[in-house]
Fold this protein.
Amino acid sequence: MALYGRFSRRFPLLSPTFMLRRKALTQGVFGDSRFWQFIAFVLVTRRIIRKIMGSDPIVVGVERIRPGETVILTGLQSKK
């Protein structure tokens, strides 16, 4: 699964989300398939809600830990 995530970030045209969005546009928005129109509506609505709510995850750091090490996570308020 980790390899897939790296691969899709490196080649975004091969990601399942991109392929799903492209098919929804071609067959739903520009075509006549009601199913793909619904999928396009769901994808667009999801993106709008993420933009409004700001729920996109932000990667701050990645560290590899060994057995016996401890992880402490703290949150900071951002000034928006």
Q: What stands out?
A: Residues 13-53 form one domain. The helical segments are 2-10, 16-29, 34-53. The chain has a mean pLDDT of 80. The radius of gyration is 18 Å.
